[in-house]
Amino acid sequence: MSYKPELTGRWWLKHGHFKRYMLREATVIPLVFLLCSLLAGVFSLQDVERFSQWQAYMAHPLVIIGHTVALGAALYHAATFFVLFPRVMPIRIANYTLPARLMVAGQWAAVLAVALLCLWLVTGGRV
Amino acid sequence: MTQPRTCYVDISRYDPERGDQYPTMQRVQVPYDDSTSVLDVLQYVKEQVDSSLSYRWSCRMAICGSCGVMVNGIPKLGCKDFVRDYVAHKGVGRDHAANDAPALTIEPLAHFTGERDLVVNMDEFLTHLEAVKPYIIDPASRPNNPSAATHSQTPAQLARYQQFANCINCGLCYAACPQFGLNPEFVGPAAIALAHRYNLDSRDHGKHERMQVLNTHDGVWSCTFVGFCSDVCPKGVDPAAAVNQGKVESAKSMLIQLFKGSSIGDSRS
Amino acid sequence: MKQRIKGLHLEPLWWGLFSAGGVCFAVLVPSVVLVFGLLWPLGVVDVSFTTLQSWYQSLWGLVFTAVVISLPAFHAAHRIRHGLHDMKIGYGGSTTAFVCYGSAMVVTALGVIAWWSA
Ligand code: SF4
Ligand code: FES
User: Fold this and answer.
1) What EC number(s) has UniProt assigned to this enzyme (chain B) (predicted)?
2) Which of A91, A99, B128, C63 is the most core-located residue (most Cβ within 10 A)?
3) Which residues of B touch C12 (CB under 8 A)?
């Protein structure tokens, strides 16, 4: 004689930690939307006509909103993902473990560097 | 002496011998001061209110790991969790009995089978623990062959696994883990953390045997790094880190098996 | 041979792709969506078709496909698969995995086709 409550599919609504976990997992939903947009983009690079169609699509207000959500999702994902790295693969040199904070900061520096590189690339250095 | 402050507490009650089908909540009024722990509350209830209340405890100092309960839905050690932290935000010194909303809800550990009141079936965790052989395996060390050198260890070798050796087998991490809740076959945080602890031990030669368990779908691969297990662990073990370091080890071990036909740490290879 | 593959499965592969895709999602995707999804449509920066096309037709185009489209797709597939399991949706097990990782493979194939025909 015993009692075992079964978990329902809504267990993650129980408290904040689980909700934040589900939010982290849900960051891939706007990512999928972005990937579809990008896939359309690379196909449109075949001629100018289709490229300007893609440009019009990318400038649609709803699409801009979707991509703004995707940017937020990417940053939230980054914030949750970077702190995991030092825990999954701690870097040990001799008897010294690299401080987790340093590894997290390094990853954010990479995000910033890529952003600057991207801006420099598309503007051709004319900033 | 001033009157002691009091508050209301809801305690989950379940007694199959009385014919209960499912747990019900019992509300009790308890006195508390700044040093009253959740375990003290339970002890007060058993002595003063209802002697039929069942719960586990032993050391009262966060060492034996037997007093795990859910407090307001979060896994806690009863002896390490204090009433003051739940009533504080409502204003210290107020008489909380004035409004009879319970400050605390105490339930048995989630994801385990409840046996009676706050007592759960810990075998559901212990069988997983047993499966990963959480002890040093060293074929060379026999009672008749005591080689001192085998068991000496440098501080650096100790540092590799020390964090994961602090586990007290309280099972809070299992009550925090939704993957264990969804799939009771999942080996789970503490057992994998202890497997990792012995795998990292320079005196151990049993990695191959443990990897057989960790490599399975119900081993490290059931984990999605929810990470709540590490948040609730009273000993700072960080079992989530151990499980995910275990994924790296498992990936290595399976790759080596694929190419060499025998896995990492295989003493027979 | 039996002994060699006994107990092996593809989880390490999916997890590896998920992790690599996670790094790309975190490090590269913010910039890409910032530039192409916001700054360009809002007219803050200008992207010239010819520059973009010639850049894309080089080997860099394939690298872009791999790290900004394909790997993040595998990352998404992995999380969707586990998210469905978490919410107890679908048949679970191999069906969900097949659909999720299959979709990521289709996305990868489309990306390669686009680059090849550009
Ligand atoms: S890992 Fe922490 S929470 Fe889990 S059983 Fe050990 S001490 Fe308890
Ligand atoms: S009574 Fe021993 S850990 Fe709480």
Assistant:
1) 1.3.5.1
2) B128
3) 247, 250-251, 254-255
